[in-house]
């Protein structure tokens, strides 16, 4: 494959490249967050499968301008990253497998989008595309839903996109042609061959996933990480051929509305060395097709703040002098990609009905717009958390004294502040202007009030039904399971209140020390040891034994864990306490932890041993006071904190300004959600001044109108 355009010096950028144009080149399948039910019927079976919102394809005639725009974005993102001088380290894998891959002549497979890295079982195949590869550098990607075929010759740097319904062909030649292939499903084939190489044996970025049996075939798995790109692959131990490959990429938090988003592309139904006709990879325009030649600018200089400024200027000009509401990478309302789509749609009539000169002018305009958006994205991807990037949307072009963004280029106390008149000022941290009231939608100004407190959740692909859990165990596919929600399964729910469907619900007196009638020395969770790739576990409101806690602590790959409302029992039952929390110091991969509805005093300092913990949920936490706040302040990497206490009138559960001062010690804290429950002494209205670098948000549920 051509080394000139595959960004071989910077493999860690391939994930960002993919995500940068995801919303334009593909139809995304974002899983909607489902808020946890506040009052659950403890003995009822609840179908809690998250809904998936799949956007329907637009009229195919509009794909022309959108794809031209996407090509510009991709080419500029590639160019914008080309000179970052990030060192490239080579690595390898199982020698026999790698040697076999080097001899592959052709591959035919299917690629789909996944939130978890596992194959989606849904019958909706909108995101499934057929990919064919012919060595050394030919790719063909077929999308039946959109009625398109994209063919790329990486070696000759030619690309053609065929749209069958409109009988049109978009032709791109030069470095940009190969760059378009970077974001395509064919990227998985290229990534597989780069990660699984003979010269990468015994490297730190390569780990064994063990073995599993799938469909009677024994598979051996490996996970390889090069920079920011992760490839997970399973191979037939007899044929040494790949059976399933997944590639992960991540959208940074500051480009995803505050929360980093991980996504996967999964390759399956893999056929190797099949007879594939070279004619299928011709980049010649078929007879009867109209040719649309696209000349994409190719700027390989490093992206800089000036590129962001130019993008903001163009967005304001195209959007009635209004800057974007957010700089997220998706096409949500008010984002640069949404404004860009609106801009392209406005030119569609000119393109479809105009003469050759007018059509060329329309293409030129969208390419220029796309170039600006792409280079701005390239600069945003270079921003790290320590650069303290802040964007304040909703401003008007030339609005007086209105900051729209600031950041610290060298991650120190020196900042650059961009104003709405597009001038830049250099200031120190102490002289940053006051944060403006940023607008997050066209009709409502954003202030410290949010609609609701965020809740812990697992991806939509999580197993929430006992039958599916047992099926995975029965078929030996435990390793494919990454997320389990046991708290939603009636088979694990225990309650002293017995209820049968159809009976009248009546108030009953409950014993707070009630415990299940089973051996407190046993563990119902021993089976978790079979799920060696488990990354998320929801145990909310379950009764657990000490043995259960030990079993949870042995799941060393856990990244998300909910212990909300759990009770531990031996001679009697009690809420989770600080001593028991110490068991989880082994979970060094843990990123999100939900300790909502617990009431232990002390113990939060035990979490300081978790280096990756960045989000902590303490909703309905009954002992929020100055002492517990001080404990939270020792968590070095905490970025998001949810405080939603109960019993707010209890003097022992209040927080004063003295306690909140300790939060300043959490240097990486970005977002603080503060719940309101009754007459609480926490000085919510003064929090922004106490914590000027933290985005403080408070929900409205339960708050009186004066709030």
TrEMBL record:
<dbReference type="InterPro" id="IPR032675">
    <property type="entry name" value="LRR_dom_sf"/>
</dbReference>
<keyword id="KW-1133">Transmembrane helix</keyword>
<keyword id="KW-0812">Transmembrane</keyword>
<feature type="transmembrane region" description="Helical">
    <location>
        <begin position="64"/>
        <end position="84"/>
    </location>
</feature>
<keyword id="KW-0472">Membrane</keyword>
<protein>
    <recommendedName>
        <fullName>Leucine Rich repeats (2 copies)</fullName>
    </recommendedName>
</protein>
